[in-house]
Design goal:
heterotrimer, A mainly alpha (53), B alpha/beta (66), C alpha/beta (315), A: mainly alpha, 2 helices, B: 66 residues, alpha/beta, 3-stranded parallel β-sheet
Chain lengths: 53, 66, 315
């Protein structure tokens, strides 16, 4: 899915998949931080956004 | 939308990541407030449609976690 | 081509006479020159209607679902691969099918041919590798190899993969060093250029869904674009809606598409829909060493779990 989005021009780092067990609160926090950093670096998304006006 | 205010739509499995998120909260851990959590009953509930829907409604990123 | 046609008619007649099949699905002459349409034949006297030429670009595997009794179907290389996909996906049992295999010599790009003429083409015929075209103002003799469809140029499975009968000798398969030049070209663009490329590509889309209807693997009883609760995608020609439709349709074809070109063939606006699906074909080949419709015994990659999954998030 990520590959096709990237093919269409949506940056790869905008879609994340991960696997975290319910006991891994630290991993959860780490992953959130990592994703958040990556997405902040990309800035807001303007592609594929539906304009309802 | 301000540059420092991003939205990451997160689809979390009830039994895995949602539990982890809960535990992180109970343990008073700090993490970025950019995620908007949607609880799904199981990662199997996930569909590519959800990801596209999220982007269409203005998400900056999507995170799927089992 | 005439030998193909005669053989197709002969085999169909035999099958219908012996009552081995109730129907033969094949191609018949269309209402316009350079057009053919699918036809299902159940009467012996109708076999004369069956033809086969370089304009049979649609995929007959699309028409084999939901029949009663055994049916025969004419299958080019790509059709046969889609038939395998159908059998693997439990859309039809193998025993219900009699496959008349046609070693394919490529189909022609009708738009490219028509662009040579200012007026309408009124006559089309072919003789081996030469195409003869006539309009009211001029006549053209063309070399078929120069006017092949893009997917036929890159085709590596011209011969039917499964068949019960063959109408001619198997043709030589080509091997390509770079089977996906078009995909690589897009991959080398940066994100914004890619986005503009696809925006431009879908700009003319009128949402007629001809690509979906011509596609043999688009057989969901209710397509996601027709679902209304929730509505995943708007009905209009809004650019986001159009892109969402094409994106998700392509994604549904992941690991199943055989690059038969029926979507492009059916598109009235000449959109190269394959720009979407080809990427997934390349990925399934590179990540899973998978090409759709070659093996009756294997499950498609997105349908099975393997410990060697190339994605790292699952670990």
């Amino acid at each position: 899915m990520g590959n096709l989005l990237e093919h269409m021009g949506i940056e790869r780092d905008r879609v994340h998949f991960s696997w975290i067990s319910s006991a891994e609160a630290t991993k959860f926090v780490d992953v959130v931080k990592e994703i958040s950093e990556k997405v902040r670096a990309l800035g807001p998304n303007k592609k594929l956004v539906k304009d309802y006006n | 939308m301000a540059e420092n205010n991003i939205k990451i739509v997160s689809f979390l499995c009830n039994w895995c990541s949602y539990g982890a998120a809960d535990l992180a909260g109970v343990s008073r851990m700090e993490y970025p407030a950019d995620i908007r959590v949607i609880r799904i009953p199981c990662s199997g509930r996930m569909s590519p449609k959800f990801i596209l829907s999220a982007f269409r409604e203005g998400a900056d990123a999507v995170w799927v976690s089992g | 081509m005439d030998t193909y046609i005669n053989k197709i008619r002969e085999l169909s007649l035999k099958l219908l006479k012996k009552k081995e099949v109730v129907k033969v699905i094949g191609f018949t002459k269309g209402t316009l020159p350079m057009a053919t349409s699918p036809i299902a034949i159940s009467l012996e006297q109708d076999v004369e209607k069956l033809i086969f030429n370089s304009t049979c670009g649609l995929n007959l595997a699309n028409y084999i679902r939901n029949h009663k009794g055994k049916i025969a179907v004419i299958a080019k290389g790509c059709d046969s691969r889609n038939i395998i996909t159908h059998i693997v996906e439990n859309q039809i049992p193998r025993e219900q099918l009699h496959i008349i295999g046609v070693p394919c010599k490529g189909m022609i790009d009708k738009t490219k041919v028509a662009s040579l003429f200012d007026d309408d083409i009124i006559e089309f015929s072919e003789d081996n590798d030469t195409l003869l075209l006539k309009s009211s103002s001029k006549e053209e003799r063309l070399n078929k190899q120069d006017y092949l469809r893009e997917n036929c140029k890159l085709c590596m499975h011209k011969n039917p993969v499964i068949y019960d009968d063959l109408v001619g000798d198997l043709v030589d398969e080509q091997t390509l060093d770079t089977p996906y030049p078009d995909v690589e070209q897009i991959e080398n663009m940066d994100a914004d250029t890619k986005w503009q490329h696809f925006d431009k590509l879908t700009k003319n889309c009128i949402r007629c869904y001809a690509c979906r209807n011509a596609c043999p693997i688009c057989y969901c009883p209710t397509c996601f674009v027709d679902e209304s609760g929730p509505q995943w995608v708007g009905k209009g020609q809004d650019k986001t809606d159009v892109n969402t439709f094409h994106f998700l349709r392509a994604f549904h074809c992941a690991g199943r598409c055989t690059d038969c070109g029926a979507c492009v063939e059916a598109c009235p606006m000449d959109i190269n829909v394959r720009d979407f699906t080809r990427k997934l074909n390349k990925d399934s080949f590179e990540l899973f060493e998978w090409e759709a419709g070659l093996d009756l015994t294997k499950r498609p990659p997105l349908d099975a779990y393997s410990p060697n999954d190339p994605n790292d998030f699952i670990k």
